């Protein structure tokens, strides 16, 4: 006995065939939902946007105006007595030919060597510590993570004062060096460049004429290649000591999110530990590596508090940085236009270097030749294992 099913009547098409019931479009309703969600999102974020606008965007725009004016720091920068000077402040820094240009060139030279040393060393050290602490066979991993991270949460002023004692003429560092027969320098009183000191050991004390006779930003090319001063070298060590722990945590988080299937495939293909790290682990850490390098680049170009607490630019202006020079130009010399101009030149340098870094570390598609070579190598490995 078959059950009868009642089919509801449907509208017939002109050809006599039953016409399917028309479904609602469904496009306008989600659009209304998205619109209401967008309004709600703007309402929730409005307080924070207003706060950022008042305390971040507006001051930045005011500082940009100050960099194009002759404001003396008194009264409003928008008063009628403040004159618009155009690019005069920037021209004085970059092509003025006077003391302002030379001071800015010296500050850039000092900071460039600082960045060139700190960023690679702290990145490599933090990655090494992360791989070391992330190993399952290591006992007491929590203790080592805390110990390595602790300098990062300590006050930079306190660390700088400690560094002044450690690297003093009779400090602990020179005491340890004396055990190995090395007469340590008076670190924070030595303005000589490290590269020039190394060249002096092989008898090179004067650069060629094409280096000593040409200048950039008021500094000769020979002085550009002087290297960081002995005093700045102590700050390099301090930066590596205090920042590696923070970046170590970023690398640890990235390592713990990596899947083990790729590692197992590489082990089956016969890759050793270094090959697995260089060819498998490191490429997967590319986003974290970009984050660490970017944060390190920004932090090293903005170094200020260590210089202010430690040497205040001495000895011989070999520890002056653009951030500290901007402070002294504005707050001590009362040349607020020049101080703001230094800050924005520094901002442009950071943005340009970050873009270059992004281009270098971007994801690249694997070429067909490399894919074919990898397939051939994998098949050969599989055949060898099959014969065995």
Automatic annotation (TrEMBL):
Residues 1-32 are annotated as: Disordered. It comes from the Bacteria. Pfam families: BPD_transp_1. InterPro entries: ABC_transporter_permease (IPR051393), MetI-like (IPR000515), MetI-like_sf (IPR035906). It is found in: Cell membrane. The keyword Cell membrane applies. Keywords: Cell membrane, Membrane, Sugar transport, Transmembrane, Transmembrane helix, Transport. GO terms for biological process: transmembrane transport. Residues 108-357 form the ABC transmembrane type-1 domain. Gene3D superfamilies: MetI-like (1.10.3720.10). Residues 20-32 have a biased composition (Basic residues). Residues 8-19 have a biased composition (Low complexity). It is a multi-pass membrane protein. SUPFAM superfamilies: MetI-like. The chain crosses the membrane at residues 41-68, 112-134, 146-169, 230-255, 285-304, 340-361. GO terms for cellular component: plasma membrane. Belongs to the binding-protein-dependent transport system permease family. This is Multiple sugar transport system permease protein. It comes from Herbiconiux flava.
């Amino acid at each position: 006995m078959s059950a009868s099913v009642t089919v509801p009547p449907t509208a017939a098409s002109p050809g006599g065939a039953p016409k399917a019931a028309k479904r609602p479009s469904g496009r306008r309703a989600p659009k209304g939902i998205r619109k209401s969600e967008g309004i709600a999102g703007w309402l929730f974020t409005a307080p924070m946007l207003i706060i950022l606008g008042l305390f971040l965007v507006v001051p930045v725009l005011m500082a940009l105006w100050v960099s194009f004016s002759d404001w003396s720091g008194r009264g409003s920068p928008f008063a009628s007595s403040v004159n618009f000077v155009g690019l005069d402040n920037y021209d004085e820094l970059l092509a003025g030919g006077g003391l302002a240009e030379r001071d800015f060139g010296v500050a850039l030279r000092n900071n460039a060597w600082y960045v060139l040393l700190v960023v690679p060393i702290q990145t490599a050290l933090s990655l090494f510590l992360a791989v070391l602490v992330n190993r399952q066979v290591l006992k007491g991993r929590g203790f080592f993570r805390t110990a390595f991270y602790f300098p990062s949460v300590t006050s930079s002023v306190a660390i700088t004062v400690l560094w002044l004692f450690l690297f003093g003429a009779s400090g602990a560092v020179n005491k340890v060096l004396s055990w190995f027969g090395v007469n340590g320098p008076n670190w924070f009183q030595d303005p000589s460049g490290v590269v020039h000191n190394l060249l002096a050991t092989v008898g090179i004390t004067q650069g060629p004429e094409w280096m000593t006779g040409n200048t950039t930003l008021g500094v000769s090319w020979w002085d550009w290649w002087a290297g960081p001063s002995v005093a700045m070298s102590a700050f390099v060590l301090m930066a590596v000591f205090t920042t590696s722990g923070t970046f170590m945590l970023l690398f640890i988080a990235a390592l713990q999110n990596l899947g083990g299937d790729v590692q197992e495939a590489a082990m089956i293909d016969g890759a050793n530990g270094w090959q697995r790290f260089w060819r498998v682990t490191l490429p997967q850490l590319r986003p974290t590596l970009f984050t660490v390098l970017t944060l390190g680049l920004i932090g090293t170009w903005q170094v200020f508090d260590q210089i202010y607490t430690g040497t205040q630019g001495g000895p011989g202006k070999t520890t002056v940085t653009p951030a500290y020079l901007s402070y002294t130009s504005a707050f001590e010399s009362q040349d607020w236009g020049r101080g703001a101009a230094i800050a924005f030149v520094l901002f442009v340098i950071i943005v340009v270097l970050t873009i270059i870094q992004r281009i270098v570390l971007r994801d690249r598609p694997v070429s067909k030749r490399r894919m074919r070579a990898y397939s051939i190598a994998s098949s050969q490995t599989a055949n060898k294992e099959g014969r065995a």
